[in-house]
Write a structure and sequence with these properties.
The structure holds three protein chains of three kinds.
Chain A: E1 2-3, H1 15-43, H2 58-65, E2 73-76, H3 81-87, H4 91-98, E3 122-125, H5 132-146, E4 152-157, H6 164-176, E5 180-186, E6 189-190, E7 193-194, E8 215-219, H7 223-240, E9 244-249, H8 269-276, H9 280-291, H10 296-319
Parallel strand pairs in A: 1-8, 2-3, 2-4, 4-5, 5-9, 8-9
Antiparallel strand pairs in A: 6-7
Chain B: E1 3-6, E2 16-22, E3 29-30, E4 35-40, E5 45-49, E6 54-59, E7 66-68, E8 72-77, H1 85-108, H2 115-129, H3 135-138, H4 145-151, H5 158-167, H6 185-189, H7 206-212, E9 222-226, H8 229-241, E10 247-255, H9 257-270, H10 278-292, E11 298-300, E12 304-308, E13 313-315, E14 317-319, E15 322-324, E16 327-328, H11 336-351, H12 357-360, E17 365-369, E18 388-402, E19 405-419, H13 425-440, H14 443-446
Parallel strand pairs in B: 13-17, 17-18
Antiparallel strand pairs in B: 1-8, 2-4, 2-7, 3-6, 4-5, 6-8, 9-12, 10-19, 11-12, 13-16, 14-15, 18-19
Helix pairs in contact in B: 10-11, 10-13
Chain C: E1 2-5, H1 6-20, E2 24-28, H2 44-48, E3 53-55, H3 60-72, E4 76-80, H4 91-98, H5 101-104, E5 114-119, H6 134-138, E6 144-146, H7 151-163, E7 168-173, E8 180-183, E9 196-199, E10 204-208, H8 211-225, E11 230-234, E12 237-239, H9 243-253, E13 256-259, H10 268-279, E14 289-291, H11 302-308, H12 312-322
Parallel strand pairs in C: 2-3, 2-4, 4-5, 5-7, 6-7, 10-11, 10-13, 13-14
Antiparallel strand pairs in C: 1-8, 6-12, 9-11
Helix pairs in contact in C: 1-7, 3-4, 8-12, 9-10
The chains are: A alpha/beta, B alpha+beta, C alpha/beta.
Chain lengths: 348, 447, 325
Amino acid sequence: MATTAAPKPPTKVDAATAELHRRYLRQMLLIRRFEEKAGEAYSLGKIGGFCHLYIGQEAVAVGALAALRPDDYVISAYREHGHALARGIAARAVMAELLGKATGCSHGKGGSMHIFDKSLGFLGGHGIVGSHIPLAAGAAFAIKYRGGDQVSVCFFGEAAVNIGAFHETLNMAGLWKLPAVFICENNGYGMGTAVARASAVTGLSVRGSAYDMPAEQVDGQNVLTVRAAVDKAVERARTESKPTLLEMRTYRYVGHSMSDAAHGTYRTKDEVEEYRRRDPIKVLADVMRAGGYLDDPGYEQLNAEALAEVEDAYKFADESPEPELDALHRDVYATEVGNRKPETGGTS
Amino acid sequence: MATKIVMEALSPTMEEGRLVEWKKKEGDAVAVGDVLAEVETDKAVMELVARAAGQLLKQVVAAGATVPVSSLVGWIGAAGEAVGDDGAAAAGQAAGRQGGKAAGETAAAPAAESAPAAEAPPAREAPAAADAATPAQSAKAQPGGGAGAIDGRIKASPLAKKIASDKGIDLAGVAGSGPEGRIIKRDLDKATPTPVPTTAPTPVAATGAAPRAPIRTSGAPFEDVPLTQIRKTIAKRLAQSIGPIPTFYLTAEIDMERAWDAREALKAQAGDAGKVSFNDIVVKAVAAALRQHRACNAWWQDDKIRYWNEVHVGMAVAVEDGLITPVIRNADQKSLREISAESKELAGRARERKLKPEEYTGATFSISNLGMFDIEHFTAVINPPESGILAIGRIAEVPTVVGGQIMPQRRMRVTMSCDHRVIDGATGAAFLRTVKMMLENPLALVW
Amino acid sequence: MAVITYRDALNQALREEMKLDDRVFLMGEEVAEYDGAYKVSRGLLKEFGPKRVVDTPIAELGFTGIGVGAAMVGLRPVIEMMTWNFALLAIDEIVNSAAKIRYMSGGQFSIPIVFRGPGGSALQLAAQHSQSWESWYAHIPGLKVVTPATAADAKGLLKSAIRDDDPVVFIEGEMLYNQKGDVPDQEYLTPIGEAEVKRAGTDVTIVCHSKTVAIALKAADQLAEEGIKAEVLDLRTIRPLDTEAILASIVKTNRCVVAEEGWPFAGVGAQVVDVIQRNAFDSLDAPIIRVTGADVPMPYNKTLERASKVDVPKVIAAVKQVLYV
């Protein structure tokens, strides 16, 4: 098992690197502020259903997706707001989707768990644990089938490594050498179940060895480390058509979903506080401060920009129209054949 | 083997009976059919007859006692035979069952009042009368109608109903060959279109068609017309507003001068033989008017309205401890003289409480007369399932404007109580107008 | 017209569509080197190579999901279930992914995929390998469900299914693979969503699909000897259901028997009955009778198995019941 070490804090960085880091920081701040706003909107009843926040894990999405090309494919599970934003879906479209509005990226039919954007190769948020892992391999299969050099990147939580779909998929991806990167975000808990209580091995990257798949454990709190590790994996997929399994060690500060407590029965407040000291935003900001290319006003400016973008997104979403009622029966089929009418049971 | 004598159900609604008087003493010889005792039912004093021959062994119930229907009142058996439960079980059960059944029916359908007795004959007559023109009756004639007859619904497949409706075939006249008498398509292949009765309710014509039609003179004694939606709604809504029978009242004042003169002339001419009461004249007029206004000659039957083609006028008669309404059957076909004689005879027996059930049930309309008590005007209570009753006040000379001049005139005020579920205002008014016209022009009674 | 087996008709359909469109590939257990567990894919590996005819490990959930993912990004996979009994392991991908992604994404993604393989009862395969699944999939908005009964329909419908932009559950009759039938020589498509009157009649409509079509036709032959003219309506597609064809036939015959191999509860016939009672109530001259598989897991014992299946006498009895004879 290879590991990617944290890149040494740069003593002197060029302007391009400084700008790149500023962009990471800005993106992480956007996700953080976005999720905080989403939490607030959920509490106000503006967002319904399940809503899983990404707070604490921002470095994974931002670092990993920075390594991709626009024509690559990205797929995620249901804690996917951060991936969607990092992939470049407008905050307005994501927030509007959370609010179930017609202007949402899935026109209000998907909600928090089902954010899709075909134009960005974002193959969605999926709600059944592990069910999207085969889909990622399918996209990778299609890439290879067409002889392309794209990459298919799949995000999933650590709890998904115990489900059959994960094993079946990694086996075939390894067997068929598919250009995929499987990114396991190990935030320590599958809902309320600690990894050690669910998995026979707690170092989850070792599971790659069963499928002849390069795998490594990565510090998921450091966006630069994440980027470096995903760079290697993407390169392997692009040039060698080989899959990689990455285990990102990260942490979520909040509950599994908005309806869960952040701590209590399964973990302590102290533990949460401990991880907050390794906050991915703080980690990067410290690096930038040490490098002398971020000061407090600079940080505040980025934060204010993120906040403004989120507020704009929320305002846009809140003021957006509801989907038309006739959208109810739309988009069930691509082609309506025969004399099909919606099966109404005669009442609607 | 001794036979039980039980209290029999001697009226349709009887639940208990008072043994007024034993007509046989213990030890008397008894033949089947002999009157054993007089029993007072809820309506009349009736005879309890022997169902077995032998000797009246024992009077279990003393005169004057009241016992429930089907309870033991005495024993008949061979002379010297011991009476007891063991030996008498079989025969006793038979009688007991009979009585018990009647009581059960009464209990099960308290609202039906006189309906069972009145319904039975038409149901038996129906098969003979079944033809295309008597739809409701012949429905019961269909093979397998036994099952269908219970809920009174014609069973037909949706297709059969559709075809019948399109072609104007009355399903009631079609025999069903499907399971449980279900009418199916093939049964209609043979059927010919029948004119839909003018009374057949259609949503649009419902309020108008039925009431205005005159009575049919041939065929079955009545026609059951299923309730239309509008009629159901009227019934429900009105019943909610006033008690179980939504009643309204129509009052008319009738010039009785000519009736008075005619009655006097008749008396003068024929003496006692020509004596008719005003009540008789009213019965005759009401019967004749009913013939023209079938809508008022009808029974409310919850899921349908039964429009009678026969006119049976009930007349309330005060008896010592209440009221009974003997019925003048086919009053529309009887002469004034016949009506007079019959009403006299019935009223007499009513006061003696000697009426048989069939003599006080089955009226299609009633009148109640309190004129002899000098009552100016009152309202009478409808006797269900009838849907109308006419309350007759006294005849009095009152100042009346005739041709611009005030002069005394004998006038009578009558008030008709109408069951609004059956009779609408205009319908009742039209009927009442005819009654008034007949009484004001007595010649019309014989016209 | 050539007379070929249902199996070869399917093979022809796959071959023709793979030739026409290189986005089409076949994936499943034993489809390539073994030439198909039921030989439907015979010769395809040789003709199209391992890239387009892909053997998989026994991992229904995984390879079904891989098919769905490939469809999301533009390929047109044909995923073979060795039998539909094994597809239960993959049903999450068929129902939660394939059927719903278009809707969940607000119409952004099409899933042009065919899930195909044999279904229905077979011979003495006992409870886990001998059952009908079409009503399960027909329950799901977003799926199309096709159940061909003849060689010609098998070919024409599979070609249509492969060209369709929606996920199609294509359930072949396991006992029909050897059945021979006329198949047109020239290129043709059988439209999805259209039922076909396989035999015209005026007295009663027997609605059927897949294997019960042959049973219904045999029953109609025998009924004809008694002067009863039964119309045999092959649904061909279960979803979308050809309600017009059903109603047109009922309006003509006024009586209906629905024959299906599946279990009675919430079966295909229940939907057919609902469509009829709702839309052709006034045309019915008798209650509709359904003839279904017995409401039990399939027994192994031959006698019990036979008793559990839809057969000609059961269909005839039902027809006589609705005809009141």
